[in-house]
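Amino acid chain:
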Amino acid sequence: MAELNHQRPKAPFFFLKPSSSILSPGEGPVLKPRGVKLHYEVELALVMGKKIRDLETEDEKTALDAIAGMF
């Protein structure tokens, strides 16, 4: 946030990325144009396998058990 001079949002926000934006390991290439500085980010996607509601903050095991996969 600081690098873009933005303030931290008051609430979390979500955004969608198309499946075509995902590169699997070994796929590519990603070409860098001359004179362009690339900014890398890591994003994690969770696939929820169970519905959970009103989960207690301390109930880490139930939260982790609800995750079917991650990308």
